[in-house]
Amino acid sequence: EQAPPAASTGHPKGLYLLFATEMWERFSYYGMRAVLVLFLTKAMMMDKAFASKFYGGYTSLVYLTPLIGGYISDRYWGNRRSILTGGLLMALGQFTLFASASNYGPASTHELSHWLLYLGLGTMIVGNGFFKPNISSMVGSLYSPADTRKDAAYTIFYMGINLGSFLGNTITSLIGDKDGHPELFRWAFLACGIAMVLGTLVFNWGKGKYLHTPEGEQVGETPVHSGGVKGIFALLPVLLALVLGTLWLDSAKFPTIAPLLGLAVVGIAFMIFTDKSLTGADVQRVLVIFIVSFFVVFFWAAFEQAPASLTFFADEQMNRTIFGYELPASIFQNLNAIFVVAGAPLMAMVWTALGRRKAEPASPVKMAMGLALLAAGYLVMCFGVHNLMPGVKVSMFFLVALYFLHSAGELCLSPIGLSLVNKLAPLKFSSLLMAVWFLANAAANYLAGYMSSLYPDPKSTAPAPVLLGFHITNLYDFFLVFVVSAAVAAILLFVISSKL
Ligand code: GLN
User: Which of 338, 414, 447 gets mutated to test ligand 1 (max ligand atoms within 8 A of its CB)?
Assistant: First the structure.
């Protein structure tokens, strides 16, 4: 007689293996990103506007490659091989950044450092494409399709993401970000490289033992699809965007990849909507995924100011001294991870309690709430910087409040969105539609970099940046842009939510 498959309480051990792997990988991604703009401005001598666009270009490309990585793993490599390859590439990328930053000196702006910077970031962009979509989808594969523990599994996994972000951000801020010591940034990158090696080793050690379905079948060893050439419609524009984006990362031509992103989305839509096997209801569900993905662009574009304009703000405009000790500017981004780890179980309890009373809001309503909370965070900030005298620094209370509200918003929008995409996508297009979600992130991160480049620099004598005819003359104007855009998106999404 066969034993019943896995205990119904608790989670399979494989979840904790994926948790640990993703924790180390996010340590590496967020740890590096936390100090990136400061490294670019203080060691690489880029100006803030340029560094902002560079940051947006990089993170945008990071979210573009999962479409390619997902395609290769679905058809050729399987999840495991893709994760190992991606992990090794990302570790290599971090060590390359370490080499770039070690070159820092009086000749810091010299060619070799710059080339190594591009090479390192490029390697990580490709590595992430193999890693991220595969680790996210493996979580669900450990359970049988109807298992109700899946939502909880993704919540636990999301906590792993943020625990990694917390550890990475703390370590890189403390060892790499010290005012007046740009030569220290390299230790941050080295730590991130080591973290990525650890993640890859842990995964390699446990994959055979723990990654199986409840029935004992190995997960992610073989590809799940075969054939299907239509994917090329979506892949080609993305590949092109990737190549051009990388070549143009440091030039004004970078925005040219935006239409290619649009083309990729059209390609994906074409593939899906011309598929004869889909029912009318399937088509409507897919439409909902596209619409919701459009709205989240406004969320992430404002949210991902954290390592860019909000870090410039913490660096220059905020009083960072606590008990006589001056905190590094980059460490404040940590608040997001702390609030998410603490808040995720609370939020899950709130939804369950509301669910029991049949009062749980529908997913699009939760996401509209996320956007509203994001607007509220920037509104608090507007109060903080209103009529600010030159040379006066703002209390850190405002940034802490902003991160609190943003994290609450993230919890309403991000895990909910992931599971919405999972639930609505027809099985045969599940990875492709997950890639649509990531493409929304790519567009949003690009926009985030662009928006941060409009950060009004009090020291600059250049004319005030202009956005759609609106002059951004001070920090109040700058933060107000996010209040308005997020609030408008929240209201629109709320209005159409019952239709969705
Ligand atoms: N913080 C989450 C992660 O790192 C979600 C990021 C996103 O979708 N932009 O996976």
Answer: 414
Q: 164 burial class (0-12, 13-18, 19+ CB within 10 angstroms)?
A: buried
CA 39 to ligand 1 center in whole angstroms? 22
Closest C-alpha among 304, 290, 320, 307 to residue 439 = 290
Distance in Å from the first CA to the final CA of the chain: 47
DSSP state of 105: S
Residues 438 and 427 sit within 8 Å (Cβ to Cβ) = no
Which atom of ligand 1 is found nearest the CA of 165? 4
Closest CA to 239 of 133, 84, 129: 129
Query: Using CA atoms, how far apart are residues 493 and 484, in angstroms rounded to an integer?
Result: 14
Give the Å distances, CA to CA, from 7 to 13, 202, 352.
11, 24, 22
What is the three-class DSSP state of 361? coil
The C-alpha atoms of residue 94 and residue 239 are separated, in whole angstroms, by 23
Alpha helices in 211-276 (DSSP H): 232-247, 257-273
Query: Which pLDDT score, from 0 to 100, does residue 105 have?
Result: 59
The whole-number pLDDT of residue 232 equals 63
Give residue 298's pLDDT.
Answer: 95
Indicate which residue's Cα is closest to atom 4 of ligand 1: 161
CB 330 within 8 A of CB 177: yes
Q: Largest Cα–Cα distance in the chain?
A: 80
Position of tokens 């991000």?
Answer: 414
Residues 221/224/228/234 CA torsion (nearest 10 deg)? -80
User: Look-up: residue for tokens 């855009």?
Assistant: 485
Q: Is the CB of 414 under 6 A from ligand 1?
A: yes
CA dist 413 and 299 (Å) reads 9
Position of tokens 């620099």?
457
In which residue ranges of the chain is pLDDT below 70? 1-9, 104-109, 225-234, 246-258
Ligand 1 centroid – CA 224 distance (Å): 25
Handedness of CA 357, 494, 403, 158 (dihedral sign): positive
Tell me the pTM.
0.88
**ipTM, two decimals:** 0.96
Q: Which residues pair with 218 in a beta bridge?
A: 212
